[in-house]
């Protein structure tokens, strides 16, 4: 090697030549890089108390859109940069869903309203205040009504006071998706007009009749956590999850058993199950048994099985398993498949759980949402009627819920609002509803304002400002207090909402507390008051179960293809649609980004001559809809699926995409207090149009979503490489920590000079490298960072993907680039399908596997890099030095896992989006390869702390961003060399394997734990 | 406007400000006495700007020689963040005003500072020491390891006009890191390029 110039030396010499030439040809000014020269620096005029530049501070808070979870907002240099979960919060315990994280893009949305608007034209703040006062004075005593989101606590008090003091109007609360149907059903069954807190903790069997509790149903964060706990193997046994649903959802894919039923038959099934489970149930008194028996006398399991399309034997096994389970839970169907049978269905589900002994433990009425906070959609229908009658003089809209978007066009909400005398909107972000107002007064975003969220009794969360308002504006409640001070002096004693909230907080919770100020600070620091009752009473059937509660139960609709509409976990009720992260996060089941699509069974679609992206039109509830089709193997024949949240209008045009699912609703309210939608018969007609759908795609592998897990063609290496592995529970030995069967990866010896199997010269020989002379080049001492991912716990929800975007400043590239396979996600969720031939059908199962850089010990990417930009570092990381990368893309070509991402452009960030970039992560430019390095910047603080204390980093001290948000705890991370660490333990679990290791010998640093499957014979 | 959050403890802050004020007054008296004494004796040596060194014009003619040299104010008295953060930071204007509410109000440069403070207009300083965006550098670690500010920033206490002393090139960084491996310095690329 000494005699010849190797490639790297040659490049080095070339580099020197370049520098030499540069030195000779210009003056001596020390500019060895262009950027940052003459950069200006503006220090603070007055420092913020306790603020140190670049040292993050966290604020416990929440927002009205966060589904009742606690947030920790990370702020750096006085600006909010990242949403993290509050680890103390009883519902999320530090985890966050993808949508909950996207609140940061709401704060910095380009649609934020910066100036007051009058009839659509910007005006000054003073002029806005004048108009507001004028209108309030002119209309005092008349009907001043307010429309807000689901506010509670002191917020609801203040708005109610305002409305009642100002005139004869009313306060209407609205939210597109709510859980109000439980209140009516609970009232009928237990005489409790409240929404129970559904708690899956401690269960060993979950039967869901359709509720997608792992993607977007109820308190998903808590459900996911408890579901994962249930799936943990204990002496070779674990709980079971059975999902009955019309179309495979993420929850269905994660279930141990998925029973596909015909849409609209869930309630019939629930009644049959109730009949079987009530008979002889020890949880019911004799009297209760006869009451229930009377209600379900006409139900029959055989008929129900026929109606649902599920084999009766399966149902019998299922009933048997439920009866023998220690603490089973049965969850209802989704409201949008229940139509007008919602209340009957929820009553049946409550009764089933009563029979199974789950009331109190799993359905907790001691921590219920009280009736006063329960929302019904009837209220907004009444408001529309009032508006149409010209009864409303002033309508005040509080931003957030967007009824102009999420109400059925049949209600003609926009026309009705036009009939109000004057419309005022207090809103932070422009949307379809705010656009209807005459006067728009900018409001603070929830992260800049005070507030309160009260999802359940005993759970009251404080919302505090985490940063100074971006623009000079006041929160809506402060405006109300100012108006009240003039119009009705003395009603509100406080000067602003913060003081009002504080007084209300003391009044409710600190009556006995000596030091109220200390209690307030304690509450703010904690995030509120977390005192939910652990469990409730096992209530008796003391409601009003008249003989006709199940009278309207029957299978819905006739035969034919049925359309199901469900809420989207990514876009929700549309509020999260104008957010790049949510648009670029692929739909888990189909991988579609940036577009609305209609999920159609592949066989059905192919036989009709359709291809992915072909547009079809259909008519539903009198509305004509055109949508591109996505052919899916997991969607059963006879069902087409569509989700809510797209089709927004009048906002940033990049996000005005797709079709609004709410346009298909009839506007009728069902007996559960929600807008009814039932699976509707549709006839699909090809229009001839085509939309190219941008789906997740791996270069070289084609459309990876259609890569089968198993296949008959053994010449195709995709089928034989065992990327996703499963194992039968009976194959596992009882203890779960042996090392057999699973991985091909032998234990690594501690303190090896180089990974043992390798030729020392495999790496760039550094023995004479001046960098290492005089040093022993010891690898993996004391750290080798590794990750373990439990495939049994991964639901494929994608919150880790969004966390990675947020943490590492990954650019959102847009539909065109995603379609070219150029999305920048360092972490993606691979979906694999398996096909099993059953007697009369092919069973299709979907599996999810999070794939990020595997930090190979024998990395194919490293050896091909001509500039040593990527190398194996001593701590087991496959390091990537961005400024050293020259962009040959050899590494990406050679990567066996396709996890390297190339910057084809220097991606432009919106001015607003720059605010939430993480300053700890390197800036990348066009022509640079990038990838996951296990959040290496996060090690810094832990390493420094450990260094200062003279110790090694402890297990659990460093969390990666993806691990932090995962509700199921599927991702573990730590030091493999620490034999007591969780990751070491998991890497030697009998379920552990390393992807492709046995084929390519890449020695990955990520262990996957095989998904466990039950033997046949279960329901 | 509401202070950020309520985690900042108001009473504590007040207490700290009072103490800080008293300390400042003591320090000021000390500094002015010391300064007068020094002036009477001899001023600290002044170092010329080397030819070609980067010494941009600043909006205020601030002299490090006067403050850090003649008056012997320790670097971290003003650059308070250096030991706590990756960024040493330029002190907030309020920090200047702690002394200059009393001292040197008749000088032109100080008048500019006072005006900026009263108008709440931040002064735009030109960065003399600036690293590219792909480099991560942490002041606090270097101070914790016991390095003098002068090791990288040169004889600042002798500079009338601040100039860039070190080349701040990668080779220069790595050389020092290599010499200090025993102190725990690392030469892994990921240390600075995350």
Automatic annotation (TrEMBL), chain A:
The record places domain 4Fe-4S Mo/W bis-MGD-type at 49-111
Keyword Cytoplasm among record annotations? no
The alphabetical list of record keywords is: 4Fe-4S, Iron, Iron-sulfur, Metal-binding
Q: Look up the domain of life of the source.
A: Bacteria
Q: Spell out the molecular function terms from Gene Ontology.
A: 4 iron, 4 sulfur cluster binding; metal ion binding; oxidoreductase activity
Pfam families given in the database record: Fer4_7
Recorded hits in CDD domains, A to Z, give: PsrB
The answer, when asked if 4Fe-4S is one of the entry's keywords, is: yes
Residue ranges constituting the 4Fe-4S ferredoxin-type domain according to the UniProt record: 785-815, 844-875
Kindly provide the name given to this protein in its UniProt entry. Answer: 4Fe-4S dicluster domain-containing protein
Q: Which organism is it from?
A: Sulfidibacter corallicola
From TrEMBL, chain B:
Entry keyword set = Electron transport, Heme, Iron, Membrane, Metal-binding, Transmembrane, Transmembrane helix, Transport
Q: InterPro entries attached here?
A: Cyt_c7-like, Cyt_c_III_dom, Multihaem_cyt_sf
Q: Where are the transmembrane segments?
A: 15-34
CDD domains given in the database record: Cytochrom_C3
According to the entry, every stretch annotated as the Class III cytochrome C domain falls at 55-123
Q: Which Pfam families match?
A: Cytochrom_CIII, Cytochrome_C7
Source species, domain of life? Bacteria
The Cytochrome c7-like domain is annotated at: 135-194
In its UniProt record, a GO molecular function of this protein is: metal ion binding
Q: What is this protein called?
A: Cytochrome c3 family protein
């Amino acid at each position: 090697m000494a005699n010849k110039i190797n490639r790297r030396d040659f490049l080095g010499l070339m580099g020197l030549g370049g520098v030499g030439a540069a030195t000779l040809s210009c003056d001596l000014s020390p500019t060895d890089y262009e950027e940052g020269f003459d950069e200006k620096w503006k220090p603070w005029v007055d420092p913020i108390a306790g603020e140190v530049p670049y040292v993050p501070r966290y604020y416990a808070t929440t927002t009205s859109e966060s589904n009742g979870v606690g947030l920790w907002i990370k702020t750096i240099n006085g600006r909010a940069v990242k949403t993290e979960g509050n680890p103390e919060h009883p519902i999320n315990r530090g985890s966050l869903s993808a949508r909950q994280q996207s609140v940061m893009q709401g704060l910095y949305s380009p649609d934020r309203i910066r100036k007051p608007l009058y009839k659509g034209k910007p005006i000054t703040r003073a002029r806005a205040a004048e108009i507001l006062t004028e209108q309030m004075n002119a209309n005092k005593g008349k009907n001043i009504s307010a429309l807000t989101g689901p506010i509670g606590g002191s917020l609801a008090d203040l708005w109610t006071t305002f409305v009642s003091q100002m005139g004869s109007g009313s306060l209407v609360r609205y939210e597109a998706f709510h859980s109000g149907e439980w209140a009516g059903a609970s009232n009928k069954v237990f005489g409790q007009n409240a929404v129970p807190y559904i708690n899956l903790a401690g269960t060993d069997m979950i039967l869901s009749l359709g509720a997608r509790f792992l993607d977007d149903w109820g308190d998903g964060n808590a459900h996911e956590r408890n579901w994962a706990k249930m799936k943990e193997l204990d002496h070779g046994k674990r709980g079971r999850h059975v999902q009955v649903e019309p179309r495979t959802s993420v929850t269905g894919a994660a279930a141990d058993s998925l029973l596909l039923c015909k849409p609209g038959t869930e309630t019939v099934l629930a009644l049959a199950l109730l009949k079987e489970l009530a008979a002889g149930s020890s949880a019911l008194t004799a009297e209760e048994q006869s009451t229930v028996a009377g209600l379900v006398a006409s139900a029959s399991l055989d008929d129900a099985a026929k109606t649902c399309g599920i084999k009766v034997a399966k149902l019998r096994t299922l009933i048997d398993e439920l009866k023998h389970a220690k603490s089973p839970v049965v969850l209802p169907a989704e409201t949008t498949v229940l139509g007008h049978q919602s209340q009957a269905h929820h009553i049946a589900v409550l009764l089933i759980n009563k029979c199974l002994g789950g009331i109190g433990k799993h359905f907790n009425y001691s921590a219920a949402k009280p009736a006063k906070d329960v929302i019904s959609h009837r209220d907004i229908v009444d408001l529309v009627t009032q508006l149409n009658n010209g009864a409303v003089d002033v309508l005040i809209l509080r931003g957030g819920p967007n009824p102009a978007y999420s109400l059925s066009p049949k209600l003609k909400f926009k026309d009705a609002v036009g009939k109000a005398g004057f419309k005022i909107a207090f809103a932070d972000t422009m949307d379809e509803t705010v656009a209807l107002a005459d006067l728009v007064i900018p409001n603070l975003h929830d992260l800049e304002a005070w507030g309160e969220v009260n999802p359940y009794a005993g759970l009251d969360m404080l919302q505090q400002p985490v940063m100074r308002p971006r623009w000079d504006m006041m929160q809506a409640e402060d405006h109300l207090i100012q108006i009240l001070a003039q119009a009705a002096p003395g009603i509100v004693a406080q000067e602003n909402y913060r003081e009002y909230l504080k007084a209300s907080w003391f009044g409710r919770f600190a009556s006995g507390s000596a030091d109220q100020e200390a209690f307030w600070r304690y509450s703010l620091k904690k995030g509120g008051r977390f005192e939910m009752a652990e469990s409730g009473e096992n209530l008796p059937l003391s409601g009003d179960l008249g003989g006709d509660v199940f009278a309207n139960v029957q299978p819905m609709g006739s035969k034919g293809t049925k359309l199901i509409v469900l809420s989207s976990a990514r876009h929700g009720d549309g509020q999260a649609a104008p957010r790049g992260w949510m648009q670029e996060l692929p739909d888990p089941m189909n991988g579609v980004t940036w577009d609305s699509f209609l999920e159609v069974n592949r066989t059905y679609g192919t036989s009709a001559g359709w291809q992915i992206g072909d547009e079809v039109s259909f008519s539903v509830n009198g509305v004509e809809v055109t949508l591109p089709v996505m052919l899916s193997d997991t969607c059963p024949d006879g069902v087409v699926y569509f989700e809510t949240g797209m089709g927004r209008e009048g906002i940033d045009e990049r996000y005005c995409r797709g079709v609004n699912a709410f346009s298909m609703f009839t506007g009728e309210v069902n007996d559960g207090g929600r807008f009814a939608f039932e699976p509707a018969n549709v006839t699909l007609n090809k229009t001839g149009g085509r939309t190219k759908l941008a789906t997740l795609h791996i270069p070289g592998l084609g459309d990876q979503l259609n890569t089968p897990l198993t296949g008959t063609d053994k010449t195709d290496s995709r089928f034989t490489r065992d990327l996703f592995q499963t194992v039968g529970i009976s194959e596992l030995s009882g203890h779960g920590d042996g090392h057999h069967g699973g991985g091909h990866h032998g234990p690594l010896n501690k303190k090896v000079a180089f990974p043992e199997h390798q030729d020392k010269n495999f790496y760039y020989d550094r023995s004479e490298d001046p960098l290492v002379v005089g040093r022993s080049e010891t690898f993996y001492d004391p750290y080798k960072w590794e990750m373990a991912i439990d495939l049994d716990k991964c639901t494929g929800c994608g919150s880790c993907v969004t966390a990675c975007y947020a943490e590492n400043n990954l650019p959102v590239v847009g539909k065109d680039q995603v379609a070219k396979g150029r999305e920048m996600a360092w972490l993606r969720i691979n979906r694999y399908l398996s096909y099993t031939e059953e007697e009369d059908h092919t069973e299709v199962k979907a599996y999810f596997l999070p794939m990020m850089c595997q930090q190979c010990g024998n990395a194919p990417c490293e050896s091909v890099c001509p500039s040593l930009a990527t190398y194996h570092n001593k701590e087991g990381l496959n390091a990537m030095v961005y400024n050293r990368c020259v962009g040959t893309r050899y590494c990406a070509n050679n990567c066996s896992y396709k996890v390297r991402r190339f910057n084809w452009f220097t991606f432009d960030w919106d001015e607003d989006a720059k605010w939430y970039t993480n300053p700890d992560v390197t800036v990348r430019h066009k022509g640079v390869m990038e990838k996951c390095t296990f959040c290496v910047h996060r090690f810094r603080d832990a390493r420094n702390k450990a260094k200062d204390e003279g110790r090694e980093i402890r297990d659990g001290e460093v969390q990666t961003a993806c691990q932090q948000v995962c509700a199921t705890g599927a991702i573990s991370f730590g030091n493999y060399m620490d034999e007591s660490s969780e990751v070491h333990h998991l890497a030697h679990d009998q379920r552990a394997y390393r992807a492709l290791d046995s084929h390519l010998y890449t020695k990955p640093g990520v262990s996957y734990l095989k998904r466990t499957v039950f033997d046949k014979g279960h329901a | 406007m509401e202070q950020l959050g309520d985690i900042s403890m108001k009473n504590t802050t007040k207490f700290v400000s009072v103490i800080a004020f008293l300390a400042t007054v003591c320090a000021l008296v000390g500094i002015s006495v010391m300064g007068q004494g020094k002036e009477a004796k001899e001023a600290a040596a002044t170092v010329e700007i080397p030819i070609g060194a980067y010494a941009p014009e600043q909006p205020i003619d601030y002299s490090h020689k006067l403050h850090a040299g003649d008056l012997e104010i320790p670097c971290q008295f003003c650059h308070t963040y250096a030991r706590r953060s990756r960024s040493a930071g330029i002190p907030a204007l309020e920090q200047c005003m702690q002394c200059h509410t009393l001292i040197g109000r008749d000088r032109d440069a100080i008048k500019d500072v006072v005006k900026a403070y009263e108008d709440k207009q931040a002064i735009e300083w030109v960065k003399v020491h600036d690293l590219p965006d792909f480099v991560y550098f942490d002041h606090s670690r270097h101070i914790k390891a016991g390095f003098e500010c002068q090791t990288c920033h040169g004889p600042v206490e002798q500079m009338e006009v601040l100039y860039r002393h070190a080349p701040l090139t990668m080779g220069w960084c790595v050389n020092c890191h290599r010499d200090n491996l025993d102190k725990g310095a690392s030469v892994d690329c990921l240390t600075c390029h995350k």
